[in-house]
Amino acid sequence: MRVSIFPGKPAQRRLIAVLAVVASAVAWGDEWASLRKDGVHDPRGPAVKILQEPEVALSKLTPDTAGNMVRWVQSLEKGEINPRANLRPDTKIRLYESDVLLNLKGGMPIVRFPHRQHTLWLDCTNCHDHLFKAEAGATKFSMLKILEGEQCGVCHGAVSFPLTECFRCHSVARPGDGKPRPSLPIAIPAGAVPPK
Amino acid sequence: MKFWCLVLLVPGLLAIAPPASAEYGDVVLNRRAEKEGVRPVIFPHWFHRIRFRCKVCHAELGFKMRVGSNDFKMSDIVEGRFCGACHNGEIAWAPDQCDLCHSGKRGLPTGIVGGHETGGPGRW
Hints:
The structure holds two protein chains of two kinds.
Chain A: H1 10-28, H2 47-50, H3 54-58, H4 72-78, E1 99-102, E2 110-114, H5 115-121, H6 143-147, H7 166-169, E3 170-172
Antiparallel strand pairs in A: 1-2, 2-3
Chain B: H1 2-16, E1 27-29, E2 41-43, H2 45-51, H3 54-60, H4 74-78, H5 98-101, E3 111-112
Antiparallel strand pairs in B: 1-2, 1-3
């Protein structure tokens, strides 16, 4: 016997399927708004007829589920895009590869900060030393500050992947922490018994 | 009963769908534009990032990473500073193509738009 997750008669199931497809296409299909409808471009101005539409460029790149819906680092590493690293021939292009582990004592998983992916895009002076001291451990991090647009939040939450993506940074399980990683942060009410 | 719950889910999904919005990282620049009689500038990070790494503008050209903190005028651009390092008719269109950058709706305040999704007290 065929088992379906949808209840009801076959005709009802078909109706649900059709409605679901239509709804998802209408509601969620527009990953990239057209410039005419994005709320910031003047739809009566000449630019919307000339400028490149986000969908034209971004739909060809490695997809993501947040921000520009593009995995920008992966897209760069795969060669889907080849952005210039300098304008002036004498600019020194610096790539630095060490990883830094942060949040060693917090409750969330440890943060692994990869210098490599950051210096693919950025220069050392973009972060050091006005945002973060170069010496490891010398900067006190605060998630509240980050959420307010300071520290990592200067970029993350504004132009690079947003702060909804907790486990992209909090990516290293603590020693002895064998619990499976949730896909979303889960708030457990005070006094509740955590599931085993 | 279950059937009708599922049917009702459809308008529910429609209701919580995100409204069409600017692309993530789009910047509105309107410190001077409207006072000078032109539309605000919409700067798309996504478009520039495909062609240039962040460090080109934010290290070589000296753009500070805080919306509103870069105080420059059209005369700077025409003389080759800030946007004018590329928007010179050689790398990108020249500054006489006013409407291509000054393409925003009137009345928009300077700021970063495109939904950073946290909804917190951010000062981007």
